[in-house]
Structure formats: structure tokens, C-alpha cells
Design brief:
By secondary structure, the protein is an alpha+beta fold. The protein has 6 helices and 7 strands. The chain folds into 2 domains: 68 residues, 434 Repressor (Amino-terminal Domain) (Orthogonal Bundle), CATH 1.10.260; 103 residues, Sandwich (Jelly Rolls).
């Protein structure tokens, strides 16, 4: 008796993929094509040079329509066209390909090897270790391990652009944000608009250690 062929289950891969999602609200990764990467580089360097599309097209001796399509990733330009654009922008040709070749960044720090950073709180006994560095892009992320030693002072005059997230690891402090204060014990967290005055208002149980992650848009 001939063996029956297994029935192909349609949609299985999609169901498995759905089960493996992280639950994050972050959008899906958009994989850029070579055309998109080149177009983005051309647009970025054109704007940096203070040129309009028509001005760069004129200098490079190509049509405005072609340049517009290149910048929008709608066509794959020839090497000769890319060389014309690179010459017009006073760049080596490889610079127009750099963003496609560049790998995705990763910052790795071993325990105890975070870089000691001097910030405003350092003068009042707040010690900072930078645990990683964001590697380009429009958004900067600064993760710090902050230690408040027994000789630390309360300080509520921090103020800077962006969003800050704090996760308490040990000790106990009353943390001020604006006109309100929040008791932070191990396992507690707080996230806030860091353009408002903030900082530890009462140091209840020292030493205290917490993770602080500051996120802001690069200027």
C-alpha cells in the first residue's frame, strides 16, 4: 500500500511567527534595499551641502527627475551616475554606499567595566557608569548605573531634554519630579519627561543603586 503524502499545513509559519512576537509596540523592521540606502545617502549629503534637488542635478549633469527618483529609491543608478553625484558632492564614491554596508550596531559592556562619567550630580556624590553607547541614528540612548554612596546629597535640579526611565536596584530614595515625589525601593520603576526638574529629594537608605536610561532626539 503506497504511503500517503503528508498534508501540507498552510499558514503554519505565519502562526508560529505570531506566537514568537515580543509584545512590543515597536514597528516591524523595514529592510532597506540598496536603492533605498543609496537614495538616503544622496539626500542626506545634498541637504548637508545646502543644495536643492535641481542644483545638485545641474552640478552632476543629470536630470532633476532622475535625481528625485534616485533619492526616493525608485531606480537603481549606474556606477557612472553615482560617480557623477559623488563628484558633485565632493565625496568618495564609497560614501554613497556606506549606509548599506554598515552592520547593525551593538554595544557590549562587561560587569564593572562601564565608563565613569562626570555629570552634574557627581559633585554631590552621585557616581555614574555609562553602560553602553547608541551607535548612530536620530535617537540617542544613554544607559547609566547610578550609585548614591553614604556621603551623597539630595539633588533635584536635574533637567534635560528627552525621556528618562529609572529602575531601582537597591537602597531607598524619594525621587522628585516637578512638584511630586515618589518612593523608590528595589524593583520600583519610574519613567518621566526629563525636561521637568527632577532628582533624588530624600536619601532614605544608602547606598542606593539604580539604572537610569535617558532617551532623546539628537540635535
Amino acid at each position: 500500500m503506497p504511503k500517503r503524502k503528508p498534508v501540507k499545513k498552510t499558514g503554519t509559519r505565519a502562526r508560529v511567527a505570531a506566537q514568537l512576537t515580543t509584545g512590543s509596540g515597536a514597528p516591524d523592521i523595514v529592510v532597506r534595499t540598496l536603492e533605498n540606502a543609496i537614495g538616503g545617502q544622496v539626500r542626506e549629503y545634498r541637504k548637508h551641502a545646502g543644495l536643492t534637488v535641481s542644483e545638485l542635478a545641474s552640478v552632476a549633469d543629470i536630470s532633476t527627475g532622475m535625481l528625485s527618483k534616485i533619492e526616493n529609491g525608485q531606480i537603481s543608478p549606474s556606477l557612472s551616475t553615482l560617480q557623477l553625484l559623488a563628484n558633485a558632492l565632493n565625496l568618495p564614491l564609497t560614501m554613497l554606499l556606506a549606509s548599506y554596508d554598515r552592520g547593525r550596531g551593538c554595544s557590549y559592556v562587561k560587569k564593572g567595566e562601564g565608563v565613569a562619567i562626570r555629570r552634574r550630580g557627581t559633585k554631590v556624590g552621585h557616581n555614574y557608569q555609562l553602560l553602553g553607547q547608541s551607535l548612530g541614528g536620530d535617537i540617542a540612548v544613554e544607559p547609566y548605573l547610578i550609585v548614591l554612596n553614604k556621603d551623597a546629597d539630595a539633588y533635584t535640579e536635574f533637567r534635560h531634554a528627552g525621556i528618562e526611565f529609572i529602575y531601582m536596584l537597591s537602597g531607598k530614595v524619594s525621587y522628585a519630579h516637578g512638584e511630586r515625589s515618589y518612593l523608590l525601593e528595589p524593583g520600583d520603576s519610574i519613567m518621566f519627561d526629563s525636561s521637568e526638574l527632577h532628582g533624588p529629594a530624600k536619601l532614605i537608605d544608602l547606598p542606593a543603586i539604580y539604572l537610569s536610561i535617558i532617551i532623546y532626539e539628537r540635535s
